Amino acid sequence: MQNLSGKRVIITGGSQGLGLAMVESLAACGASVTAIGRDRAKLYAAEQAGATVIAGDATDATLMNSVVHEEMPDVLILNAGARLPMKPIDHQSWEEFSTIWNTDVKAGLVGIQAALNTPMKRGGRVLVMSSGAAMVLAVPYIAPETLRLSGGYIGAKRMLWFMAHSANAVSRERDLGIHFQVLVPCQLISGTALGHQAAAAYAAIEGITVDELVVRRYGSILRPAQIGEQVAELLGDPRYGNGVAYGFRHESDILPLDV
Ligand SMILES: NC(=O)c1ccc[n+]([C@@H]2O[C@H](COP(=O)([O-])OP(=O)(O)OC[C@H]3O[C@@H](n4cnc5c(N)ncnc54)[C@H](OP(=O)(O)O)[C@@H]3O)[C@@H](O)[C@H]2O)c1
Asked: Are residues 180 and 206 in the same domain?
């Protein structure tokens, strides 16, 4: 287990799914964790794991600026994300298509700007949550059809990856010493609300169960707890201090993607 005692960490979307898994893992490693989510009742599990909780919207610049300013975190994890439309493109309204942009990308921009403009302390790290979907059309093993119900998700998650590079450029130009990195879960994680919703939609089309779909596509099931543990490893092990993007797959070491 990594020793993260003395580290202050803020996690957006920390009330469930991957965010909660990171809250639990980093708190267990001794970090002082603050979890942000809109629904106060859903933050109970993060509170039980030892986190301080804030009910609020991660796309709210006033909130994020003040939380970063007051808490002066060593690590800011921009994980908050919306659900996918799970409809074919001929049935998506613009509102449904752009939901991920208005949540994930907006919260990413707001969080990155809070980190750069407060600014966070030197040596601070910002982890931006992307997705393996961001690599579709760039790597042959992800068939585009397997993501066809996702609306604007793919471009949004690629955009967040690119935004981390832009933020690193600003950090270097302003000599801020803040490093932006990208988390890339490389498969659907059916133990989360978002992952289950997506896997269930494709499974229904194929007439199989969610678990069968995940095993057919990826070989095995990736658990949220593995991501929580590997993010703790990423933060605690200096080998992962300088790269930009790291991937996560079931039963695999952390994958350097963009270093
Ligand atoms: N699950 C997967 O298979 C998978 C794969 C690759 C990448 N990801 C990415 O990983 C991240 C987490 O996904 P997940 O599966 O854990 O999702 P999830 O179970 O649906 O949880 C989403 C979390 O984000 C919070 N949230 C949503 N909008 C928010 C906002 N505007 N402000 C603050 N918090 C907000 C939710 O709480 P409230 O609703 O109470 O605000 C909740 O805590 C997302 O960015 C997702 O795109 C997931």
From this structure: no
Tell which atom from ligand 1 comes closest to the C-alpha of 193.
Answer: 19
The confidence score (pLDDT) of residue 1 equals: 86
82 Cβ closer than 6 Å to some ligand 1 atom: yes
Q: Are 135 and 40 in contact (CB under 8 A)?
A: no
CATH number at residue 133: 3.40.50.720
Distance between Cα 12 and ligand 1 center (Å) = 8
By residue range, what is the domain housing residue 211? 188-221
Task: For residue 253, count other CB atoms closer than 10 A to its CB.
Answer: 11
Pocket of ligand 1 contains residue 71 by CB under 6 Å: no
In a domain, 71, yes or no: yes
Tens digits of residue pLDDT in 93-148: 999 999 999 999 999 999 999 999 999 999 999 999 999 999 999 988 899 999 99
Which pLDDT tens digit goes with each residue over 152-202?
999 999 999 999 999 999 999 999 999 999 999 999 999 999 999 999 999
User: Roughly what angle, to the nearest 10 degrees, separates helices 106-117 and 153-173?
Assistant: 10
Kindly report the protein residue whose alpha carbon is nearest to atom 37 of ligand 1: 37
Does residue 199 share a domain with residue 239? no
